[in-house]
Write a structure and sequence with these properties.
about 210 residues, alpha/beta, Rossmann fold, UDP N-Acetylglucosamine Acyltransferase, domain 1, 8-stranded mixed sheet, 6-stranded mixed sheet, 25 strands, about 30% strand
Length: about 210
């Protein structure tokens, strides 16, 4: 098995560990985290390091595969680029109980949780988290550094731009465009386009 680095020792890191437990070719070598309280601790017997110590550990142990596992899109993106710049191959992982249809493509550092279904002719960028039981309809386009919460439902031909966050249980009407950096609240029903940087909540979803 190949050892990998997981940057993120919080809840997202443990989610990654769960998915990786189903993938025979990978095993976690160590975690990284910026929280000094976590540095020097262990998760299931595996060490947690700060940024510089993590890079040194990986170099010493010839580990060149990594995944960024942080809930905040911006921070997850920063660590994604940091690891790439330091020569790591950024992998994507798919839970074995996710359903990926034909003609679906996704980039690096994509995390697809249990029960998620992605329908045909959908495209997903880099550094994207798809929560459990999310439904990604046909001909969807999801950009980079996006977080989709569990039980989110997309209609067909939805366009999600970079750095968008979508809360648990939200529903997105077919053909809607979610602008760069916008936020969709938990349980919201989005029936029209959301401008960049705006937060929408409610049924139907409205800006706050």
């Amino acid at each position: 098995m190949k050892k990998i680095i997981v940057y993120g020792a919080g809840e997202f890191g443990t989610l990654i560990a769960n998915v990786i437990s189903y993938i025979e070719k990978y095993t976690i070598g160590a975690y990284g985290d910026d929280d000094p309280i976590k540095s020097g601790t262990f998760i299931d017997g595996l060490p947690v390091y700060g940024q510089e110590d993590l890079l040194n550990f990986a170099k010493k142990n010839n580990i060149n595969i990594a995944i960024s596992a942080i809930g905040n899109n911006k921070v997850r993106g920063e660590k994604y680029y940091l690891l790439k710049e330091n020569g790591f191959n950024m992998i994507s992982i798919v839970h074995p109980k996710a359903l990926i249809d034909t003609n679906v493509s996704f980039g690096e550092n994509v995390i697809i949780e249990m029960g998620t279904a992605i329908h045909t002719h959908s495209t997903i960028g880099n550094n994207v988290f798809l929560g459990g039981d999310a439904l990604i309809g046909h001909h969807n386009t999801i950009g980079n550094h996006v977080l989709v919460g569990g039980n989110v439902s997309f209609g067909g031909t939805v366009l999600v731009e970079d750095y968008v966050s979508i809360g648990v249980g939200a529903s997105i009407k077919p053909g809607v465009r979610l602008g760069k950096g916008c936020t969709v609240g938990v349980g919201a029903a989005v029936v029209k386009d959301v401008p960049p940087g705006i937060t929408v909540v409610g049924v139907p979803a409205k800006p706050i």
